[in-house]
Queue: 2 jobs
Job 1
Amino acid sequence: MGYVDLHSHVLFGLDDGAPDPATSLAMLDALASLGVSEQCVTPHQKASQYLPAWADVETAFAEVSKLRNPRHPTLRLAAENMWDDVFYQRAIDGTIPHYTGTSAFLVEIPRQLMPPGMLDRLFQFGRAGKVPVLAHPERYHQLWDDDALARSLRRVCAFQIDLGAIAGFHGKRETKAARHLLELGLAACVATDAHQVGDLQQAAAGLAWIDKKLGHAAVVRLFDHAPRAILSGELPD
Ligand SMILES: [Fe+2]
């Protein structure tokens, strides 16, 4: 057993994550050292910036799967879906890339503006048996000073906080928000969101912060039990 990381850009040549196979392997080495036993690989699916064809994503997944060694975490394919027109159409068509073999998917929203109708749409996903996981809620400006909104949103999706933000590497306001969501008990899980090898040192610092401030049981809950629950189709409390 070990940690389960729901968010990373380990697959090479698809987005702003690993640029080549050597970097993918170095990231898997660092993830193994961090204690991760299952790594979800979540390349961007973002219309305005990174929208690799899904066949290319599958090819990169197959190549990295072939390169990994038994010491590395096992891999599960998913995507970081931006809530844009592509996502909206995929929601209608039932083709949102999920965590493979599960009813859960990872989604991000623009920093400055919550998509209109988002709460209702998330509620509908839940009614359809889906588990939406909201990537890095600490980045979203509308949640910064609105705990009531955060609570409403948290009822219909799982908040995934970035470990680097907890440790202080993603900006002051983001760090404050990340720690606040953890202390309020609204964080469902944490993830590395690693784009490069150095991000995994930041992730280790984030885990150390949780361990020190909230206790080791919180580390186990946020980086082991909750992500496993999500992958088995549950929305953690
Ligand atoms: Fe990401």
Note: The mean pLDDT is 97.
Job 2
Amino acid sequence: MNSMTAKRQITLTIVYNNVAYDTNLTTQWGMSCFIQGTEKSVLFDTGSDGPILLKNMELRGIKPQNIDIVFLSHIHWDHTGGLNDLLKEHNDVEIFLPLSSPDELTSSIAEQGARFTCITKSMEICRNVHSTGEMEGMGIKEHALIIDTKDGLIVITGCAHPGVVAIAAKARELFGKEIILLFGGFHLTGMSDQEIRHIIMELQEIGVKMVGPSHCTGERAAELFKVAWKDNFTNLSLGARFELEIT
Ligand SMILES: [Zn+2]
Ligand SMILES: [Zn+2]
């Protein structure tokens, strides 16, 4: 290892998911991931239920007060359901959410004393952590989170309603870098093997090195991703903790 190169560690902990990895945590439909090692710590989505989110966080040693930023990928209940209970415990956070979010949500956030920023175009939310900007996705707008490193990009998707390929392509286009890890919900249930294989091919062409499909990806799609990425397939289901050494 070159001692001149400063390495730092990004830790990803999956605290809410309908796909189990560690069965000590409560499995429930939805998605939430806690990100540490970035300038500010980020909770990506909040799952569907507050008490379950808070309990799973506790089992992973994460206190609500550890969270600086809450990133809401899109306004579906299985990604926003834990927010209210989280804010009751800790409202000193900045919430980043799509501009298209309903007024009831932003007014309830304001009532609870948290700060929020509505996102439409791609923007940096803290050093090297970005939103793709709102993307159109079958009746709902969604944005994905990008962590920019010298080694490449880490891209996290909620449900990937705009299409997982469109999201990966947008990240690549914004930064002109390969994607070292793409994970989250890929929304591929009900697709034929042929359609899934086509998506896999497109993601490999974009330069996706590691994948961690979960949440709404679908079991069959996850199997095919595993075959395609082999050792570069990571299991980022409920309770998984993943550490990346990056430059
Ligand atoms: Zn959704
Ligand atoms: Zn979802």
Note: The mean pLDDT is 96.
